[in-house]
Design a protein that fits this description.
alpha/beta; Protein tyrosine phosphatase; Protein-Tyrosine Phosphatase, Chain A; 11 helices; phosphoprotein phosphatase activity
């Protein structure tokens, strides 16, 4: 099956099925989609997603973004508002004190994943993933560009499912292929009335140091990724086993 879904009106829409785990299993197809803005989906694209089995749409954008570029309401999926911003904890201070990255995006990613509000956003995502336990039903999670807020979510999901860091990194960097043309990130992704910090993030190329810094921050402050899931996302070993049972081929 295709990794990149070129549906009319979608930005950076990609399938996460098919990735292998370190213990030889594979993520199921028709279960997990990552994306950028989907406010301009055409009727044909919506028909495709209905047939695909889409049931849950998780929107990481802020209130203003959601109002200006609203997700399309349909009768086959439910939209969950799950803003990652604004950050409310001390994630930025923790990231700054770690001082192990010169990457603009890397510092932001560390701040989000160490911040209480960012953690609550991804906690909701992981709990919704457990609800998606019927065959051929899928979750789509997205932000505006499908690179940063969505990219961090994909990192967490793939890591939780047991995908190796190299594969996770390749999936993250695939965004750069989607944005090979500067014109792709105009319009809703770089609007004068939008949040300028988010505009800057959308215009910044994905880089290897960004994702490495995420792994480093989690390791430094939590000791292991499993500890991060348990302590930051309240996602214990029992829930982790449920997640793997739902999303991995037997």
């Amino acid at each position: 099956m295709k990794r990149i879904l070129n549906l009319d009106g979608a930005i950076n829409l990609r399938e996460l099925g098919g990735y292998k785990t370190t213990d030889g299993k594979q993520i199921k197809y028709n279960k997990l989609l990552r994306s950028g803005d989907i406010s301009n989906l055409t009727p044909q694209a919506l028909k495709y997603l209905k047939n695909y089995g889409l049931k849950y749409v998780v929107d990481f954008r802020g209130d203003n973004e959601q109002q200006m570029w609203s997700d399309r309401n349909t009768d086959f999926y439910k939209i969950y508002s799950d803003p990652v911003y604004p950050l409310k904890g001390n994630g930025d201070k923790l990231a700054s004190s770690l001082n192990n990255t010169s990457s603009y995006l890397g510092l932001i990613y560390q701040s989000v994943l160490l911040d209480k509000n960012g953690q609550q956003a991804y906690q909701l995502l992981f709990n919704l993933l457990l609800e998606n336990n019927k065959d051929n039903n899928s979750v789509l999670f997205h932000c505006a560009a499908g690179k940063d807020r969505t990219g961090m979510a994909a990192i967490l999901i793939l890591k939780a499912l047991g995908v190796d860091d190299e594969t996770i990194t390749r999936d993250y960097l695939l965004t750069n292929l989607m944005y090979a043309s500067p014109s792709v990130i105009n319009g809703t992704l770089n609007d004068e009335s939008g949040d300028q910090d988010i505009n800057k993030m959308n215009m910044t190329k994905a880089d290897l140091e960004s994702i490495t810094s995420v792994f480093d921050a989690i390791e430094h402050y939590y000791g292991s990724f499993e500890n991060y899931l348990t302590q930051a996302l309240k996602f214990d070993k029992n829930k982790l086993n449920q997640l793997r049972n739902i999303y991995l081929e037997k």
